[in-house]
Design goal:
2 domains, 547 residues, 9-stranded mixed β-sheet, single chain, Rossmann fold, 15 strands, alpha/beta, diphosphate-fructose-6-phosphate 1-phosphotransferase activity
Length: 547
């Protein structure tokens, strides 16, 4: 593998670990748990893995001899910085338990398990990928593990390789699959443990026991660096409004964190739009008013941050999309029609209220709402060019006001969508340490016979030695939601809390940021240097922890 000078230097970096994981550990059990909602339904679906206690590991002086174990690992879903360090931590953890233990990686996600596509991850391979971005060590995929024939097909290779435990590294849907798989293997008494690790740059897989999902820290720092660069250019040229769409289909954590790091003129938070029952026109007016106020001060430039999933949070649009998801999941005729006929067909076959909204949309946006669904049956909101839609509608609103004598500025636009740019970045020190600890914790969960648990590392705003490692039952995070027109058990997504400290800090400052240009330019991620420069977690996490 050809490496840059930075990669060579990073390869020598030894991620920090909680002190509890540096020797033999003992398990400390908490109270029994229950799901966040729909307790009766979730317990009925997961009788063998429901109600288990939260656990944490504490250091013990007692030495334990562990037999050699074979472990399988899967990277599932979209990439996130730090995935390679989860695998490195898992590898080092099982090797410390017994040097003869082996780690097998299934190629291109869960499909690799079903298709028996794998490779042994040796020390030589692992060492090439320590502290690097991406998922290319084994690749990732989005195959859903939800059918008995998949479970049984996977079991064939698990038995052949003598695998005792399977580690699923993924987001909420991937870990839901891990929970289903753990329950199935437990019910059949197959003796195969399944452990999850919390991944997603979107930041929506978190709760009281999972402080953050890995990759969020790095991705937000990458995006904030580029936003800062744009803002520096924006202030230098003083002639463009930059509409910047950011990753975050189901929650606005990335947009909010980037706003806290860069202080843009406008940041839309989808959860607030939904709470206030704002229409699309309300959002447009909000942005246009700020543009007009800045123009009155002679500032015909600015930045607007837009969460990827905004459209779905506008109540009227959300109702339309929900009906479209159900309609298209059960309709066979739509796909056989040409584009023009599809629009008319939808209007005639959905409710009158939603048909009116659908008919009012620009044809391009309406078309995007009926494109192929994602693997979960939902509209692919990343394909909707919300940044262009909003800037066009703002331009139209400003022209209306110009005709009425309410606006006399200039409005030139630039558009950006930051998504893939942050998914495979070299992990920040925080993510490098956090991910390595998550993988190491997974090895301890395996060693202690746990299944149906997600690896948990908490207290991460403190020095790494003080981090708390343990596990949380995946069923504890689950509720029932509609997918493909049916109610399914899934991990509940964590949304931006409008009464939470991060949003409150943003809300208290945004009026000032809107009119008085107070841009921050974070610069690139720093890997070497003072702790206060290199090891800081996100503003979101610091504020949530009261720091």
């Amino acid at each position: 593998m050809i490496k840059s000078a930075l990669q060579i230097a990073r390869a020598a970096y030894q991620p920090k670990l909680p002190k509890a994981l540096k020797g033999s550990v003992k398990v400390v059990e908490g109270e029994k748990t229950q799901s966040v909602a729909d307790q009766k339904e979730i317990e009925g679906l997961f009788p063998n893995t429901y109600g288990m206690p939260v656990i944490k590991f504490e250091k013990t002086d007692g030495a334990v001899d562990f037999p050699a174990i074979n472990v399988g690992v899967i990277l599932s879903g979209g990439q996130a910085p730090g995935g390679h360090n989860v695998i490195s931590g898992l590898f080092d953890g099982i090797k410390k338990l017994n040097a003869d233990s082996k780690l097998y990686g299934f190629i291109l996600g869960p499909g690799g398990l079903v298709d028996h596509n794998y490779k042994e991850l040796t020390a030589e391979i692992i060492d090439d990928y320590r502290n690097t971005g991406g998922f290319d060590i084994i690749g990732s995929g989005r195959t859903k593990l939800e059918k008995v024939d998949q479970f049984e097909k996977g079991l064939e290779i698990i038995k052949k390789l003598g695998i005792k435990a399977l580690v699923m590294i993924g987001g909420d849907d991937s870990n839901t699959n891990a929970c289903v798989l753990a329950e199935y293997y437990a019910a059949k008494d197959y003796g195969v443990q399944v452990i999850g690790c919390p991944k997603t740059i979107d930041g929506d897989l978190k709760n009281s026991m999972i402080e953050t999902s890995f990759g969020f820290d790095t991705a937000c720092k990458v995006y904030s660096e580029v936003i800062g660069n744009i803002q520096r250019d924006c202030k230098s040229a003083q002639k463009y409004w930059h509409f910047i769409k950011l990753m975050g289909r189901s929650a606005s954590h990335i947009a909010l964190e980037c706003a806290l790091q860069t202080q843009p003129n406008v940041c839309i938070v989808s959860e607030e739009v939904e709470k206030k029952n704002m229409s699309l026109d309300d959002v447009v007016v909000y942005i246009a008013e700020i543009v007009a106020k800045r123009a009155a001060n002679g500032d015909n430039y600015g930045t607007v941050l837009i969460p990827e999933g905004l459209i779905e949070f506008i109540p009227a649009m959300k109702n339309l999309i929900a009906e479209l998801n159900d309609f298209l999941a059960h309709d066979d005729k739509f796909a056989t029609l040409d584009k023009d006929a599809q629009r008319d067909y939808v209007i005639k076959n959905i409710s009158k209220e939603n048909a009116k909204i659908y008919a009012s949309l620009p044809q391009g946006v309406a078309r995007q709402l009926t494109l192929d669904r994602d693997p979960h049956g939902n509209v692919q909101v990343s394909l909707i060019e919300t940044e262009k839609l909003l800037s066009e509608m703002v331009a139209n609103k400003l022209e209306e006001w110009r005709a009425e004598g309410k606006y006399n500025g200039k409005f030139s636009r630039q558009h950006h969508f930051f998504g893939y740019e942050g998914r495979c970045a070299a992990p920040s020190n925080y993510d490098a340490d956090y991910c390595y600890s998550l993988g190491y914790t997974a090895s301890a969960l395996i060693a202690n016979g746990k299944t149906g648990y997600m690896s948990s590392v908490r207290n991460t705003t403190a020095p790494a030695a003080e981090w708390i490692a343990g596990g949380v039952p995946i069923t504890m995070m689950m509720n029932m939601e509609r997918r493909h027109g049916e109610m399914k058990p899934v991990i509940q997504k964590a949304l931006v809390e409008l009464d939470g400290a991060p949003f409150k800090k943003f809300a208290a400052s945004r009026e000032d940021w809107a009119i008085n240009t107070q841009y921050i330019y974070p610069g690139p991620i720093q890997y070497f240097g003072p702790t206060e420069v290199c090891d800081q977690p996100t503003q979101t996490l610091l504020l949530e922890q009261g720091k």
